[in-house]
Amino acid sequence: MKNLIVLVLILTTITAVGQEHSHRSSRPLTFPDIPGYKSIKTDLHMHTVFSDGNVWPNIRVQEALRDNLDVISLTEHLEYQPHSKDIPHPDRNRSYKIALQEAKDHDLLIVHGSEITRDAPMGHNNAVFIEDANPILQDKAENAFAEAKKQNAFVFWNHPAWYAQNPDGNPILSEFQKERINKGELHGIEVINMTDYAEESLALALENNLTIMGTSDVHGLIDWDYTEKGNHRPITLVFTKEKSIPSVKEALFAGRTVAVYNDLMVGREEFLAPLLQASLKVESATYAGNSNVLEIELTNITSSDLLFQNESAYTFYDSSPVFEISAGETKMLHLKTLERKSAVDLKLRALGCFVAPKIQPVVTWTFNPSN
Ligand SMILES: [Zn+2]
Ligand SMILES: [Zn+2]
């Protein structure tokens, strides 16, 4: 009988999952919205067999659904086509069209993109929100950028610190990039590419008013390259007015992003600070017994582990001033306010987050303890 109940439960579960037609994995990426904007999860740099990747485009769509992403772009190298003997690929829009077809029954937006691929100093650059990839395939890099601009594309500099192109592992802003920026042909820069984070790329983003990006640049499987190693893929959170392709494009041009890789978050303070603020949900704030020790219960509602250092006017009763709240975890902090207060500020420095090289944001939560 017991076995029968178990069997019925298993069958019910299988049916329920089948009906939902969900591709969600056990570790979906989750981030809260911030005041005035939706937090849209994007990965705008990846490859398939239509350039030097190892999977068909439909797999990229399914992986994105498993990770709970909102927007992806398949950015095949226009010029580097190692599979061309097997896949002649006369139309460079093919990968986008297959992905679009695969995503049509799902809540996933596909952005049309391509990677313009050159040696240093031009390097690799993604043009996204393009209309037609074919005319962007040009002999001269300058002409490829001019065509991308003609199509009103958002263009970002990929892995500028890549040591295959810059042996020091530092980005070099050449005359080529300066000219593209001046002409309005280069709008963003990857500060996180695959598992690499370059503070120097963040500095370039801030100095040149480029949008801060993080991408997976995946060629194999997300599961093998990231998940199995205990990592999430890097993404760019884009703060948009709504979940639509024009809205994501508008936000990227406006620079409203935070790049995220596991517990590393990189972005302008005006977006990263409210993101952190919304990331900790206050469950309760009450004084313990007859004491002046304030118990604050906080839940990290994101999929990233968050590391903090106490910078409040008050010290902790029972924990190190440096502490982590893991993804999804609820933690109780005990703050010694020395007397009962009607309003208390908890000030925390987010140690894994950067608004500029070596600068971490400090976020304040104000509580009105119930006595
Ligand atoms: Zn590249
Ligand atoms: Zn790439």
UniProtKB/TrEMBL annotation:
InterPro entries per UniProt: DUF5001, PHP_domain, Pol/His_phosphatase_N, Pol/histidinol_Pase-like
Domain of life: Bacteria
Coiled-coil stretches: none
One Pfam family per UniProt: DUF5001
Annotated Polymerase/histidinol phosphatase N-terminal domain residues: 42-120
Protein name: Sb-PDE family phosphodiesterase
Organism of derivation: Maribacter cobaltidurans
Upper taxonomic lineage: Bacteria, Pseudomonadati, Bacteroidota, Flavobacteriia, Flavobacteriales
